[in-house]
Design a protein that fits this description.
One of its GO terms (cellular component) is peroxisome. InterPro entries: SZT2. The chain is an all-alpha fold. It has one domain (2-138). It is built from 5 helices and 2 strands; from the N terminus they run αααβααβ. α1 crosses α3. The radius of gyration is 22 Å and the shape is elongated.
Length: 141
């Protein structure tokens, strides 16, 4: 599959590279962007270019999310930067999924206890996030 081979070739280029003796160039600037080159018999159409960019973007997002998840799994006390929070929860964007449950009438008299029990169970596998910047615009909603 051409797209996966291009993406894997690009991901190999993402690893830090050691400069050859005498090589010039500002590596800090080079690491701020990614160049995607498509080669073929004829020029790639706009739909192919868009699909390749989208595949690459998705793979990079997945890699970043995996690193963040691993970091938080190893040390739940790690603090998230505003950039981390915005990456995980895009600003001004509605949630992709909303789940609603209805509770049977039998528990309506004990809602506080049910919510406490639910909260305790969530804390067994979810961690309360820590932030490097505690201003409200940088916190999860």
């Amino acid at each position: 599959d051409t797209s996966s081979s291009i993406v894997s070739a690009v991901s190999r280029e993402l690893r830090p590279r050691v400069k050859s003796f005498g090589e010039v160039g500002d590596t800090a600037r080079q690491e701020e962007y990614l160049t995607l080159k498509v080669h073929g018999i004829s020029e790639a159409g706009p739909e192919v270019k868009c699909e390749l960019v989208q595949v690459l973007h998705n793979r990079l997002d997945d890699a970043v999310l995996e690193v963040l998840s691993l970091m938080l799994a190893r040390n739940p006390m790690c603090k998230l930067s505003p950039e981390d929070v915005h990456f995980i929860q895009k600003p001004q964007r509605l949630p992709e999924t909303t789940v609603q449950y209805s509770l049977p009438p039998a528990v309506h008299d004990n809602l506080q206890a049910v919510f406490y029990y639910f909260h305790q169970n969530l804390l067994q596998f979810l961690h309360t996030p820590k932030y490097t910047d505690t201003r409200s615009q940088f916190l999860w909603v």
